[in-house]
Amino acid sequence: MSSAQPSTDPASSPSAELSPGRHRGSLLVCALVLAYASLYPFVPLRLPAADAVALFLQLRYLTGFDIALNVVAYVPLGALAVLALRASGAYRHVIAKAAVIGFGFSAVMEALQLFIPFRVAQVADVASNTLGSLIGALLFARPVYERITRPLEALRDRLVEPGPWGDAGLALVTLWLIAQLNPALPFFEAGSIGSAGDTDPFEGDVVILALQAMAIGLSTCGFGLFVSSLLRGPDGALRATVALLSIALWLKFVTAATMLKPQLSADWVNEVRVIGLAAGLLIFIPLRELQRSTRTYLAMMLVLAGALFARIVGDYSPMDDLVRLFRWPHGQLSTFTSLTRYLHEVWPLLVMGYLIAYFVSGRGRDVR
């Protein structure tokens, strides 16, 4: 008599028991980010040249960095496509469909680039993007799924709010981390280093410095409360918040050292920013013990207040001036700075919308 073995098919995992289209929102967000990166600066437009198809089939301006970037950028698209489709059939077929989606999406982006003078469309980009989508989809192939993806899914299910609310919150956290890749954008501030609003802590007005520290502190505390609303319980909220802030700090440190001009590599952090960050964490520590609905409401208020104070003292440099802060020989700099800057600007609004919808829905009311 043989005993039943637990299934390792991705379609039969707890996270696979999804309402139809649960992950389509995350897939759409990923596609929008990739579309922005692929089509920036969008204008001016032109009709493709007569030899556009011949040039598309040639290998031009191809570097190892571009190939690696194309592959890495499309890995999330392939993985999210599997998550969105895996209830529709056997996982082998779903993996193939996800790779085809990556190929089709990349082909459309490259075709649209033919109409943008500052973009170079070529078949090598489609190939590397498709490879990235396939790698992302293969995260759900049985050997990889059993060893890596399934434990990560179990961790997500154990720690984070179930269903679409948790997925949307994780998408917002991911967008925030992407914005932190830009070392010219300080933590939880409006503006950029080197702008008119970037005050020297040893020379600036005391009132402005106090407002700057207050904005950072409010935003940090609001961020922690937002993170706590994503978790199943408040017990790990401080650890999760500190972990995310630490990851972002390391991203800033590494990208500042490798991308900014040497004399600017330490400008993304100063004494006022450290004080604001520490104060926000100290305020968050007792607040994380409140009921979930109260934490959600406070997160709304603090994120809004932090963003408003930041706008008072912050100032964004023109895009041309922002690009001049970097020493980056690999290309795609304008796209990178533009994408991360707009994510940095719009992120508080996206979080406000999420928290308002979450609060109005009544989820977590009277639940810690």
From TrEMBL:
In terms of Pfam families, this protein maps to: VanZ
Ranges that cross the membrane: 27-47, 67-86, 98-120, 126-145, 165-186, 206-228, 240-260, 272-290, 297-314, 342-360
Where do the segments described as Disordered lie? 1-22
Q: Where is the composition biased (Polar residues)?
A: 1-16
VanZ-like domain spans which residues? 58-140
Write out the entry's keywords from A to Z: Membrane, Transmembrane, Transmembrane helix
Q: Which NCBIfam families match?
A: vanZ_1
Q: Which protein are we looking at? A: VanZ-like domain-containing protein
